[in-house]
Design a protein that fits this description.
Structural class of chain B: alpha/beta
Number of strands of chain B: 19
Bound molecules: flavin mononucleotide, iron/sulfur cluster, FE2/S2 (inorganic) cluster
Strand order of the largest sheet of chain A: 2-1-3-4-5
Oligomer: heterotrimer
Chains: A alpha/beta (612), B alpha/beta (578), C alpha+beta (174)
Radius of gyration of chain B: 25 Å
Largest interface: A-C, 59 and 45 residues
Distance between the termini of chain B: 47 Å
Shape of chain B: globular
Strand content of chain B: 5-15%
Number of strands of chain A: 18
Radius of gyration of chain A: 26 Å
Structural class of chain A: alpha/beta
Helix content of chain A: 25-40%
Distance between the termini of chain A: 70 Å
Largest sheet of chain B: 5 strands, mixed
Strand content of chain A: 5-15%
Number of domains of chain A: 5
CATH architecture of the largest domain in chain A: 3-Layer(aba) Sandwich
CATH superfamily of the largest domain in chain A: NADH-ubiquinone oxidoreductase 51kDa subunit
Strand order of the largest sheet of chain B: 2-1-5-3-4
Chain lengths: 612, 578, 174
């Protein structure tokens, strides 16, 4: 039981002094790592360690996401004596033995990952590295299911400092000074939001952590919750103290079972240790945290909808004002913050707002975590200081486009964001710069696209998402977005006209201007940004009835040319058997039966199939 | 007060007002559609969902919905900029793009808020055409038609059913383009605990919720030479029907109504008020019996079928509480097909009883099994005030221009006690007038029990009835009824007599009355008209009605007799709570 | 007029599986429920999660049971169920095949995979095959975008899926 702050510091000291095993092997075991085959790797290491009787010399740590998604399962082997380490990617279970045996140097036949890509140093931006880890400081470093691992890395010390040395308004001031802005997408200054709730004179207030992470293609919050749940809990307690709340909720999507499980464990551990619950660390402050589950509704990421969902209602947003900070959950003042926002806070309180403010750009301090995905070579979870140019992320960390294809655009901000053209790649990322490009910071999804991606089709994809996720309450979003989608569909089918474009744009702007909540207010962004940035692509669909990227099925056809040697490969692979031809002679596609799946195009080794 | 500017005009309004309130104050009209003011019933309906009311607010990025944006000091609003007008037109365009546009054959034609809006905005064609949502029409009930193709998702019905009536039938279902307001699992209304109070119909701005129409059945009956067709008109009809003919709200159109009905061709035009007096005779007998025996208290009134069904579903364990007296509508039917039939020498099945009611639940009530004898229904056809107005219009009968006529006898004479049935508090007041006389054995003066009048949801009073203290309560609106019943169940409240009406304000605000489109001041005027009509009458106590006295003398014996029970009383059935 | 509530459901799951009813009942009884409907409502979504875990889906008998315990109207419970994609009122197949239709998977071609699954299983998205073996659905990002396109069969994640792998994935469902 940690019933005084001193006991916390002593425990951390003791843990850090303890004699460690000479080798520490961290194995990335997030949802992604497990999906990629992490479990048998852990199993193999356990067996090999046992076979070699290395139990006391080698410590195996199942850790959260390391962020090197492109080569999962990945592991890090640390020599705790000299502090050196090697990162291996694409680890197969049968490599475990070899890795254990390669006492110094690297194991033969394994893939070693370059440290500049993955730079797991603590909370600092090292020279030459693109990444800096504040939010992800513990992800991939600790076992998220062990409270002591977190405490050893100064865990809960920020909370101790706040509870013993600071008045609530001083806490808020510190957050304001740090310049921390909400990472949930809008970028609203966190300290300011807290001060509104703190100013309300009611006895009951609530603090909510928004872990709904609905942006498809974004997985930062999941990585934090799976890899370092205590960092969020600690920050929530700090927030509760600052605004005068004694109850916190984590609203988490049901699609994240592992994160839910780890949060449960973390809350229990923290309560048992006296770091949460009644009379935290003997300071007299009470704060309990409960989990509430989403049930598959993107709009429940919007804070008023989220609140209604916790209240057990349909997740329909309501008009603001009143803002949740004034009247939120069960009409009590309520602060809603994003997971990543919280994950910054402990570091800010341990190191001071001045330290934090130095990182990042003028209007956006600190770092931002991005889920780098799509057609980029090295997919991963990266954390960079605000103001880092897009290029450094996509080409520096992501190593450019796969298969030597042409980089075309990068999509940020998810369904609320836009597609940024390749020539804007030098733009430094912060909230304002991205809005300037017609996109948004959003929650941090960053999807890279290449020459095969049709921008009209992408806009249609996001609109389809909006349609599926709209709550249906207000006219512009319920009907307006349906109409936008229909218009995009007609363009993709080759039925669009110049008039369609005018209508698309006009209606988009009116939807933005009149929709009730953030979902509708931003849903036309993917349309507007692709129209502005890729007008020629829209024109190709309308004027030439062609899809240059070859993505719109109704505008393409597959035709076999004279390169065909009659190898029959395509015919054998066609799912609807519509390719005919004698062996060793030219084949033909029955256009009336072809479903344009593109399988033949991909399988032909002789460039004998044209996509028109 | 908060100072602000709208279209360069300065205005000061109360804190917590909206831009819409402020604009109203200075006579600037902002179109609305989903908005509905229900503050007089203490209900809030701010969904802000249609967005038709958007205006420009200086310093704000997006347009703001006037109906739910609170005013702020120094706010500068412009309601008529090209930006907001364009946005509104587009929103209307979108609504119409997902709408059948069947105005010419729509029940709501001429009374539809969407149609009116389209006329005002002068939209000439729909630009953003596309797919429309389609649903099966719910024709399951005797009272209500739900044609959700026409729903614009204002959610008013949801507020009416759930917040105001707390019946809990209607909820948002699905989401996105497929979102709609419906009962659980899109069940038909007959498979729910719907009370058919019709409050959802009363608030629906469009033709998505309308009533089951029986006008044609009436026309057919009127042309059936083999039948004697008689009509009864409920108390609340006479103070509302004039509105349909341009008479100011609150006009008492009794005589013109009767004249119109005679022109339509009814063989006899009778008054439900007569039956209301009869109800009082039976109910008061029961009240006095329960009071003196101190048994089975409180007694609950039973003349509102919406309320009765609510009780059967939601408080099945209390079904013993209401008076067993049938409602006036059903008593009328029973007497018409027995006493009156005998008098004119016809068989019950040769008589068709038509009711004109302010109510949709009455359509359902008339179909209840309890209310027929040997397969002959007490009441055959029920039409609403609105339907009757439509029939008049169709027949070219403009009742505002007619010379008043008198009800026929013997079922046309009534007292003031019967008249006030149409207002919340009226039934109880009528009963107390008679109870006081019967208990004291005198004709007491001072018969106004004003404490129970008014549109408030719950009125409580301890009234001295000829020396006996009667703890009385009057509620209207099922939400208020629920509150009182819950208190009784928990033993927190003790009453002797309670009047309950399903519709807030009573029948004058029934689901079959002319639409008020959110203008609740009309209800106040209807209420005043009812009490005026009462005061104009010399006979104001039910038991003094000479025709009632004659009915008992010639036919029923005395109140509570075996025959009275057979014809004028009923029973209630606990129903499942779905 | 008699109540027809049970007509809508061929099977009353509560009566069919009394032990499951007890399980759900004891969960609901463990919640701090009271007379305040608004407070009770706060437990609705977790109760529905629990109920769906136990019964596999949420037929009307189960909805009524939950509604009764929480003192809510059936329409309110149904309104919530129909809002959230996670809840289903119809039985699902033994194998729930979900294709990730998140952005990362979309640009990597999950659309073609979904089309092929639809064609191969001859069911539409959101449907269950007649033999109740397969349900096909879309899913928004499981957070394994690095493996895009991703297909989940029950709990198992298949990464880097192509249309060609479809028969193989289905044949693994025994
Ligand atoms: C449609 C919509 C979806 C949203 N989804 C999320 C989400 O998944 N996670 C999140 O943290 N914020 C989301 N937000 C933003 C939240 O409403 C809210 O602003 C945020 O949680 C506040 O936290 P912050 O100030 O720390 O950013 C969403 C907003 C909208 C309009
Ligand atoms: S904008 Fe869309 S999601 Fe938001 S309230 Fe309107 S319909 Fe619902
Ligand atoms: S595109 Fe697909 S369906 Fe068409 S021919 Fe090629 S393989 Fe066959
Ligand atoms: S795979 Fe290419 S070369 Fe072979 S038959 Fe098909 S088109 Fe001809
Ligand atoms: S609901 Fe109104 S707008 Fe629609 S068809 Fe009927 S009258 Fe016309
Ligand atoms: S307004 Fe136009 S559509 Fe309507 S009845 Fe007259 S002419 Fe016909
Ligand atoms: S008639 Fe009354 S009870 Fe029935 S749905 Fe309408 S408002 Fe609800
Ligand atoms: S049915 Fe009528 S009242 Fe109900 S939401 Fe639809 S339009 Fe509004
Ligand atoms: S209050 Fe009157 S109008 Fe309303 S349901 Fe009851 S009887 Fe009908
Ligand atoms: S390795 Fe887990 S997020 Fe990439
Ligand atoms: S009237 Fe204001 S949003 Fe509908
Ligand atoms: S988009 Fe498919 S797993 Fe993330």
């Amino acid at each position: 039981m940690i019933d005084t702050p001193d006991k916390l510091y002593q425990l951390a000291e003791k843990l850090n002094k303890e004699k460690k095993a000479s080798t520490r092997i961290l194995i990335s075991m997030g949802t992604c790592g497990i999906a990629a085959g992490g479990t048998p790797v852990v199993e193999a290491f356990r067996n090999e360690v046992a076979a070699r009787k290395l139990e006391s010399a080698v410590e195996l740590v199942e850790t959260g996401c390391m962020g090197i998604c492109h080569c999962e399962p990945s592991i890090e082997v640390i020599n705790t004596v000299d502090g050196t380490s090697i990162i291996y990617g694409d680890v197969k279970p049968d490599q475990a033995g070899a890795i254990l045996d390669s006492a110094s140097g690297t194991a033969a036949g394994s893939r070693v990952i370059n440290r500049t890509w993955y730079y797991p140093e603590d909370e600092e931006n090292k020279d030459g590295a693109i990444q800096a880890r504040i939010v992800l400081r513990n992800c991939g470093r600790i076992n998220p299911e062990k409270l002591n691992d977190y405490i050893a890395r100064s865990g809960y010390q920020a909370l101790a400092k706040v509870l013993t040395g600071m008045k609530p308004h001083e806490v808020i001031l510190e957050v304001i000074e740090s310049g921390l802005r909400g990472r949930g997408g809008g970028g609203f200054p966190t300290g300011k939001k807290w001060s509104f709730a703190a100013a309300q004179e009611t006895s009951v207030k609530y603090l909510i952590c928004n872990a709904d992470e609905g942006d498809p293609g974004a997985f930062m919050d999941r990585a934090v919750l799976e890899g370092d749940p205590h960092s969020v809990l600690e920050a929530m307690a700090i927030g509760g103290y600052a605004i005068g709340a004694h109850t916190g909720y984590v609203y988490i999507r049901a699609e994240y079972p592992l994160a839910i499980q780890r949060l449960h464990i973390a809350i229990k551990q923290a309560e048992d240790a006296g770091l949460l619950g009644k009379n935290i660390m003997g300071t007299g402050f009470d704060f309990t945290i409960e989990l509430k589950y989403g049930a598959g509704a993107f709009v429940c990421g919007e804070e008023t909808a989220l609140i209604h969902s916790i209240e057990g209602m349909r997740g329909e947003p309501t008009f603001k004002p009143p803002f949740p900070a004034v009247s939120g959950l069960w009409k009590a003042p309520t602060v809603v913050n994003n997971v990543e926002t919280f994950a910054n806070l402990a570091a800010i309180f341990r190191k001071g707002s001045a330290w934090f403010k130095k990182i990042g750009s003028a209007n956006s301090s600190g770092t931002k975590v991005f889920a780098l995905a799509g057609k980029v070579d090295k997919v991963g979870l990266v954390e960079v200081p605000m103001g880092t140019p897009l290029k450094d992320i996509i080409f520096g960390l992501g190593n450019g486009i796969k298969y030597g294809k042409q980089f075309k655009a990068v999509q940020t901000g998810g369904p609320s964001g836009g597609c940024i053209r390749a020539d804007k790649i030098d733009t430094p990322i912060d909230y304002e710069a991205l809005i300037g490009l017609g996109s948004m910071m959003g929650s941090g999804g960053m999807i890279v696209m290449d020459e095969d991606d049709c921008m009209v089709n992408i806009a249609k994809f996001f609109l389809q998402f909006t349609l599926d996720e709209s709550c249906g309450k207000c006219t512009p979003c319920r009907i307006g977005n349906t109409r936008l989608h229909e218009m995009l569909e007609s363009i993709c089918n080759g039925n669009g006209t110049q008039d369609t474009l005018v209508k698309l744009k006009t209606l988009s702007n009116i939807i933005k201007d009149t929709a009730l909540c953030g979902l509708g207010q931003t849903s036309p962004n993917p349309v507007l940004s692709t129209m502005a940035n890729f007008p020629e692509e829209y024109q190709a669909h309308i004027k030439d009835h062609k899809c240059p990227a070859g993505a719109c099925k109704n505008l393409i056809s597959f035709v076999i040319n004279d390169n065909c040697v009659g190898c029959t490969l395509c015919a054998r692979n066609c799912p609807v058997a519509c390719i005919a031809g004698e062996r060793k002679s030219k084949h033909f596609i029955d256009q009336s039966k072809c479903i344009k799946c593109g399988v033949c195009y991909q399988t032909c080794k002789f460039h004998a199939i044209d996509r028109n | 007060m908060i100072n602000m500017t709208i279209n360069n005009i300065k205005v000061a309004v109360k804190k917590n007002s909206t831009i819409l309130h402020a604009a109203n104050k200075i006579g600037i009209k902002i179109p609305t559609l989903c908005h509905m003011e229900l503050s007089c019933f203490d209900i809030d309906h701010t969904t802000g969902s249609c967005r038709i009311c958007v205006v420009e607010v200086e310093g704000r990025k997006n347009l703001a919905p006037a109906c739910c944006t609170p005013v702020m000091e120094g706010m500068v609003v412009r309601t008529n900029t090209i930006r907001s007008i364009n946005a509104r037109r587009t929103l209307l365009d979108l609504l119409l793009s997902d709408h059948p546009k069947d105005c010419l054959t729509c029940e709501k034609n001429g009374n539809c808020e969407l149609q009116k809006l389209a006329a005002e905005m002068d939209l000439h064609h729909v630009i953003y055409e596309g797919k429309q949502s389609t649903y099966d029409i719910d024709l399951s009930s005797k009272s209500i038609v739900r044609d959700l193709d026409k729903c614009i998702m204002c959610r008013r019905c949801e507020t009416a059913c759930n917040k105001m009536q707390t019946v809990g039938i209607l909820s948002g279902v699905g989401r996105g383009f497929n979102a709609v307001v419906a009962p659980a699992a899109m069940r038909p209304l007959t498979d729910t605990k719907c009370t058919f109070c019709g409050q959802c119909v009363a608030v629906c701005p469009v033709g998505a919720l309308t009533e089951m129409n029986y006008k044609y059945d009436v026309w057919r009956a009127l042309n059936d030479k083999t039948k004697t067709v008689i009509v009864q008109t409920a108390p609340a009809v006479r103070v509302a029907i004039g509105e349909e003919f341009g008479m100011p709200p609150g006009s008492i159109a009794t005589g013109k109504l009767v004249a119109g009905l005679k022109l339509l061709g009814f063989d006899k035009v009778f008054d439900t008020d007569f039956a209301a007096d009869l109800t009082i005779m039976e109910e008061t007998t029961e009240l006095i019996e329960r009071l003196t025996k101190k048994q089975n208290l409180p007694i609950l009134t039973s003349c509102c079928p919406g309320w009765v069904k609510f009780l059967e579903h939601q408080f099945p364990e209390l079904v013993y509480m209401p008076s067993t007296a049938k409602s006036p509508q059903q008593m009328f039917g029973a007497i018409a097909k027995s006493y009156f039939a005998e008098k004119i020498g016809k068989k019950p099945e040769e008589i068709i009883v038509v009711s004109v009611m302010p109510c949709l639940a009455k359509k359902y009530e008339a179909s209840r099994e309890e209310f027929s004898h040997n397969g002959v229904k007490d009441v055959d056809i029920v039409i609403s005030t609105r339907e009757l107005a439509d029939m008049f219009k169709e027949a070219g009968i403009l009742i505002d221009r007619l010379e008043p006529a008198e009800y026929d006898n013997p079922l046309g004479e009534s007292t003031g006690a019967g008249v006030i049935f149409g207002a919340s508090g009226g039934v109880l007041e009528a009963a107390l007038r008679t109870a006081a006389d019967w208990i004291s054995g005198q004709d007491l003066p001072g018969i106004d029990f004003k404490a129970v009048r008014g549109l408030e949801g719950v009125k409580e009073a301890t009234v001295n009835v000829a020396g006996i203290e009667v703890r009385a309560a009057v509620t209207s609106g099922l939400g208020n009824a629920r509150k009182i019943l819950e208190k009784i169940q928990k033993g927190e409240a003790h009453y002797d007599a309670i009047e309950i009406m399903a519709c807030p304000g009573g029948c004058l605000n029934g689901g079959g009355q002319p639409y008020i489109h959110g203008n609740t001041s009309i209800l106040e005027k209807r209420k005043n008209a009812i009490y005026q009509a009462d005061e104009r009458l010399t006979l104001r106590k039910s038991h003094q009605n000479p025709h009632i006295q004659k009915l008992y003398a010639e036919f029923l014996g005395k109140p509570g007799s075996h025959k009275a029970h057979e014809l004028l009383h009923t029973h209630y059935t606990p129903r499942q709570d779905i | 007029m008699t109540c027809k509530c049970q007509d809508h459901e061929e099977l009353n799951l509560l009566e069919q599986f009394p032990e499951k009813k007890v399980l759900l009942g004891s969960y609901l009884d463990s919640l701090p429920l009271g007379d305040d409907r608004e407070r009770n409502r706060g437990f609705l979504i977790q109760s529905l999660h629990k109920a769906q875990n136990i019964f596999g889906y949420l037929p009307e008998s189960v909805q009524l049971f939950v509604a009764g315990k929480l003192k809510l109207h059936l329409s309110e419970v149904y309104g919530v169920i129909s809002f959230y994609h996670y809840f289903t009122t119809t039985p699902v197949g033994k194998y729930k095949i979900n294709v990730c239709t998140g952005t990362a998977c979309f640009v990597k071609g999950s659309g073609a995979v979904l089309d092929e699954l639809k064609r191969y299983l001859n069911i539409e998205e959101g449907e269950t095959s007649k033999d109740k073996k397969f349900s096909l659905g879309g899913l928004r990002c499981v957070g394994a975008c690095s493996l895009a396109p991703v297909v989940m069969v029950n709990e198992k994640v298949y990464g880097n899926v192509t249309s060609k792998m479809v028969p193989e994935i289905i044949s693994e469902c025994k």
